[in-house]
Task: structure prediction
Amino acid sequence: MTDDGNDRGRGYARRDHQKVALGFGIVFVLVGIAGFVPGITTGTLSLAGPMSGAKLLGIFEVSVLHNLVHLLYGIVGIIAAGNGTFSRYYLIWGGVVYLLLWIYGLIVTGVRTPVNFVPLNDPDNWLHFGLGVIMAGMGLFVGRSAPTDIPGRPRSASR
Result:
């Protein structure tokens, strides 16, 4: 393994952060599919915008665009799981995007304006906040080893 997190020739999703990216990718694909399934999604599904009356699990507002974004996010996560560096970037930057979406949602939820093109409600907003924190945190910390040279501490005899 190289320091950059790549596992060339070692197999798919071998490191912890790659497994986490794969897990997020699979969940996003399943959520994207579920958003199109009547019964799991209630109400009338529209293309985009806050006028969509559809709710995933009766809680989270969705639209065709919203579901397609979940599918795309999931596919990218599944692909990212094959590369250590890409999986880490997927988690970190995916988390940042979700935190930005959380801020966007806090601003536009309940407001009818042309910039409100994603159906969002309070449960969506707080889910996006949680996803942002968890994804970015996992990308930053999962699979990172403790430093081997700590200032003021003697080096181990095994060196």
